[in-house]
Amino acid sequence: MLHSMSNRIRTSVGSVDREDGKHFVRSRLGKIVSAVLGTLLVASGAYAASNWVIGLAGGSSGEGQSATIANVTITAVAAPAATNLLYPGGNGDVVVTISNPNGYPVTVTAVQLPTNVTYATGYTTSALSVTQAGCLAATPSDVIWNFSTGSSGSSHNLTTPLTVAASGQGGNPLTVTLTNDASMTASAPAACANTFFSMPSLTGITATGGAAVATSSPATDAWTS
Amino acid sequence: MRRPLIRLSVVLGIIVGSLVVNPAAASASNWAETLQSGSTAESQSQTKPATPTGVGATCTSLFLTTVQVTWTAVPRATAYTVYESTTSSSTGFSAVATGVAGTSWTSGSLTLGSYWFEVAAYIGTNWASSNSAATAPRTITLGLLCT
Q1: Is the CATH number of domain B56-146 2.60.40.10?
Q2: To pair with A184 at 20 to 30 A between CA atoms, which of A94, A122, B18, B98?
Q3: Where are the domains of chain B?
Q4: Peptide bond preceding A80: is omega within 30 degrees of 0, i.e. cis?
């Protein structure tokens, strides 16, 4: 009786006993192993899940390398028509579409602009095919990107990040009206009235690829500084 | 007793793993993207300012030889130019005041004769409207009366 009581006591405090040692080992060691195993299972699952989102499926190199990253394109469009039109000393809207050729969403958070002496070219119609005499970039037209500076590549944050859906998904390309992001100086030539402008090319964007909720098209956005 | 404890340990391990690992896994999926060169974007300018309306000329006083010209404001106009003719309502106009702010202008002392006036609106330096219609004539008569 005393021997069995001793065994029970020793078991409860975790002492090693010839009959209860196995139980002790399983009990404490088992808890530790279970906790570690659970952590590893979640880690591997999360890692695998994130890779599937990025797209390491068929078509990749087969060597486990990441998929090719294709450039985002930004293109002029005439619709929707700008609400705010340019005038000397004032600002106007700019309309673009953003196309994402990648198999995952891309989120644009900022744009990089050319200098404030890089001017737009004027055209007679929204098709941007026939130039407007007396309103060319070299004239100059006096139309520039708003908030552009004397340095090329100045970066300007969008008020709201724009997420373009993965290739083939709705909302790609994404049409965006950039409110009041074009500017016309007070000395703009008279020939630049009632004219359509092809804005100077952006020098770059700040954007990342990865899982995100796509922005609905058409959208409205801007940089304000 | 031991089995429930083991199950609890596994669950706790999963919870801890979720809290620790997921944020790192999400950020690893954000790749930097670049812009294809040669981007384009479209903007548009408005038309030139509208022709001023409601242009009129009135004598400031019967016994004074000055005339006040008034008109209705044009949207976004930054200045106005006043033209005067002593010939007729259709010819001989020349600018007598430029960069006029507001919607009125008063001449200096005028000599004997009849005067017609027109107004043009400007946005900025170079965008000008067409001249308005000419006002009715104002005449400075002998005795220097303005009618």
Answers
A1: yes
A2: B98
A3: 56-146
A4: yes
